[in-house]
Amino acid sequence: MANDTKERILDAALEMFSQNGYAGTNIRELSASLGLVKSGVYKHYESKEAIWNALLDQMIAYYGEHFGSAEHLPPVPDSLEELTLLTMHMVNITIYDEKIIMMRKVLTLEQYRDVRARELATKHFLTGLTEIFTRIFMGMMEKGLLRKDDPKMLAFAYTTPISALIHLCDREPEKTEEAIKQVEAFSRHFIRVYGRGD
Q1: Residue 16: how many CB atoms within 10 A of its CB?
Q2: Rounded CA separation 190/184 (Å)
Q3: Architecture of domain 1-54
Q4: What are the pLDDT digits (tens) for 36-76?
Q5: 167 strand-pairing partners
């Protein structure tokens, strides 16, 4: 029961932080949204900062489990078509998973205020993706699917435009369908340029 309440608090905090930012969220409103009094929240978390840090911990775990990370790598594709399918699967999770959308908004808002948020934003928007795809591309080169090249540079070149299109979806949701088509077209273009199999 206590764990359920803690989860509910974090879920509500994620929603409020993604809409109002850290400074614009207060414990009284957070408590009221859950049908609790302030002391009911403080029973589980000693401060707003404690909620914030627990939420960042939860974000890291959730993102790694649902999207992937250097520690939770997706399997290396066995064909070039599988690279596009894997990419589109990851993009769909990123664009349509409500929790990940809110996490991205929180990190975007708070990266200028909080060092930990800044580090997570850099990891999730840039370095983490490059790391994942560096390992994927190394594996694909070993399988003879991609021509030999610097896998880190290829990963950077592959993930940066995709990440930019995901941020476009956040800013202008009406362009989501068009952005997804662009990601798929870009993936297939990349395969035509660097692929060796199929």
Answers
A1: 20
A2: 10
A3: Orthogonal Bundle (1.10)
A4: 888 888 999 999 999 999 999 998 888 888 777 767 788 89
A5: none
